[in-house]
Design brief:
This protein has about 450 residues and is mainly beta. The protein is rod-shaped. About 25% of the residues are buried. The protein is built from 2 helices and 37 strands.
Length: about 450
Amino acid sequence: MQRKTLLVTLVIVGVLALALFFFVLQPKLPGLTQLAQNFSQPKPSLFTARIEAGQGGRVIVNGTETATWSSTKPFTLTLEARPGECHVFDHWLVNGTRLEGERLNLTIAGNTTVSAVFRRLSYRLTAVSNASWGLLVLNDSVAKLPFETEVSCGSKVTLKLFPWSNESISLKPLGFFVNYTAINTTETEIRVQGNLHIVAVYKFETHILYLETNAPGVKVLVDGQEVTLPAKIQRAKPFTVVIQAPPLVKVNDTFAWGGPEFQARDYIRGVLTWVTFATGQTPIHVEEAEKTIRVYYHPYYSLGKDTYVSPLYGNAYVKGNTIIAVPDKYHIYTVNIILPPNWTRARVRVESSFSLGAVIMFPYNKNGNIYDEVDASVGAQRGACTKLTAEFEVDRNLPSARVLSYYCDAPVASSQDYTSGPWNFGKGNEQYLGRLIVVGGDGSNVRIQVEVEG
């Protein structure tokens, strides 16, 4: 019993001695003291910053591209957004809050997420054409010109030109001007790196025939179809049409337009000139861009019984069966007398003051190809006739012309001649060969009387 009590006492003394040992020797055991403190104090927090770069750029943080930063104490980060090709920096998102500026200084005092947001650039694309009907195919879609759209930087656009035509015009593609640089091909691909101004270049081809007339209300046949003049015929390619003009455009019982001639407009030595080249029915070839044809009619005055008078040089008007010829500034007068289809003989009386002479000519169709002419004339030999009177007679079969009588107060000579073809006194009059008498001369106050048999 005593031994048991002694053992317990020794244990208690040992524990007390050990406690005293640690208490007395504590300054000499710092590691153990720190360990005790660690168990007795709370652990400090760790701050983490995560840096994210959106598509189209990168972020430099304190001179590096480190994406994660951590510390138990607050720290500062300097961030710089660097956009890549075809992108631009837009804004920052710091824990969901938007901030501006490409450079950013942040004090990190807690967990933080920083995102750099970049925006892809887009540019303006405009397209026009030198032809309003041009077809531009942009990325396999037909663009109606003028055209404008937005395209992303770095993307590729394909441009194609196609020919186009209708009945009136044709367009042949030649190429492009892209930002004023010529591209001589009808198909190209462009990488977008800025604004694009595109001009589609076409060769415009059209051929126009202008038809004019000097008489009102003239209707002609164009390839058999009736057309009222003036008119414009337009084709995409060179073309030929057959024009048929009526021989007579009647206005009233006294006046008509007749003897049509086709005249082409031309500039000779810089002067606008109408060149007679065809009769009232002929094919017209249009190979140049524009051609102007005038269906020229002579004024016709009725003498009655399907007989008409048309002045060629000077002017004329009719009183009954008398033609009053008004010479031009050179005192020259020439009139056509268009006889009725069934005429057999005609008598013509010419009276003129201060005249040098008068002549009557009868052209006729000999064999369908060659036009012959018979004529009769009187002419003063020395000086002008104060008053000249001459009477002529023309027979249709066999064709002949002769002087019946004449009077002049000066010596006068008469003649009768035959001239072999070809004869042409204006192509528009060919249709009247066999019916046409030409009276010409020089003087003033000219009166012409006509009597027709048949």
